[in-house]
Give the backbone structure.
Amino acid sequence: METHPSGGIEIGRVDGNALAGPLSEIFRTDMTDASGECRHCGTLAQLADAIVEMDDAGLIVMCGHCGRTLFTVVRSEARTWIDLQGIAGLAIPRPAG
Amino acid sequence: MIVAGWKAGTVKDAAMATPTGRVLTLEVPGWPGNLPGQHLDLRLTAEDGYQAVRSYSIASYGNSTQVELAVDELPDGEVSPYLVEDVLPGDELEVRGPLGAFFVWREAQPEPVQLIAGGSGVVPLMAMTRAHHDTGGAAEFRMLYSVKTPADAYYASELSELVDDRFALDWAYTRVTPEGWPEPAARISRALLERVTIPASAAPTVYICGPTGFVEAAAMIMVDLGHDPARIKTERFGGA
């Protein structure tokens, strides 16, 4: 397991399936079906296929194609900070029915 | 899909399934049911208020307020040792879900399905296998389940019992094989997958779940065998 030197907190490299819960707090929907366009390489891919590193403080989502950061979410006591610099756009499918 | 907030769940049953893993059944009033393949987030709150959240795939499916999870204990884990060694029936946990619109199998899918599981990655694929068995649809299902040793397999006897003309099961052992096994222990290889998985010409949907390294190795082999990457769905659990 890839671990950061941060004293025993579980940090692993997973994929965008793990974003479903955390992003539901921000986007109020399941984002694993959404697609993101990478600002660096232009690839439009489902977030479920992104590379994700997450721990209790936040998460880093990276483009599965070029590895550059798509977006980060950092949670502190007072607020959640979202950096979307690596995302050119998000395509969120409309719910059926 | 709107995700509701956290719900209280009570542990109904907890049983060791492998030397490091436990199957938990939770009763969650208000649970809206879940599709095969979905997961939930589980939140534990310590006495000092510290909270930890982890995702777990659900082995059960359908409209029940009972959800079944299988948890593997990670050596450096913060949450898994508690769930595997300490938690008891009657204990309360918080859960959020169902989660996951991507890594799901729906009864309406007509195409053949190839499941590839590594260790505890079998959990969401178990939900799919159970659902496929119960629905009686014609689609062909095959599973390749890779484990370190026979003792590390979850649901081994149930899977063997589900084998019929619509569900085939193959095992791979990476460290210790059962007595009389015809091959030495080895990690999954292109040769093995070519031999036991549904061929690309049948255009199956492929679901691969397990540790990150395992999933990426298996996915690369399947692409190399000619499968359309768009038909390969992966769920990485982290770890090695």
DSSP finds one helix and eight strands in chain A. Chain A touches chain B at residues 1, 3, 8-10, 12-18, 20-22, 24, 28-30, 32-33, 46, 48-49, 56, 95 (CB under 8 Å). Strands of chain A lie at 12-15, 35-38, 44-46, 51-55, 58-62, 69-75, 80-83, 87-91.
